[in-house]
Amino acid sequence: MIDFQLTPADENVLSTAHEQALIGQRYARYYDKHEDELEPEEFPEAKGCRIRSRWPKKDSTEAAARGFSIRW
Fold first, then answer.
1. Helix or strand or coil: residue 43?
2. Has this prediction a pTM greater than 0.90?
3. Residue numbers of the chain with a pLDDT score lower than 50
4. How crowded is the C-beta side of 20, counted as CA atoms within 13 Å?
5. Nearest 5 degrees, angle CA 63-CA 50-CA 65?
6. What does each C-alpha distance from 16 to 19, 28, 53, 55 come to in angstroms?
7. b/e map of 10-22 (b: 16 or more CB within 10 Å)?
């Protein structure tokens, strides 16, 4: 039987994406009303951001272990 329950890692990704979407929505509304202002390089919420790239590094053997290759 197929198990459709999310793993804890999947739940973490979804909750983090939801948090970021709410933050992004707030800034999108603000800058939509204030089109003459430039957005900052980094928003205050991004300083403690725990998101990191899930892609392996260019010289990593992790890509081979996962069964795919990256062409540069």
1. coil
2. no
3. 53, 55
4. 12
5. 10
6. 5, 18, 13, 17
7. eeeeeeeeeeeee
Cα 54 off chain centre by:
9
- Render pLDDT for 36-53 as a digit per residue (tens, 0 to 9): 998 888 788 877 666 554
Number of Cβ within a 10 Å radius of residue 49: 13
Query: Alpha-carbon distance 25 to 10, whole Å?
Result: 22
Output DSSP code: residue 57: P
First to last CA, the chain: 40
Give the Å distances, CA to CA, from 53 to 13, 24, 49, 58: 12, 19, 12, 12
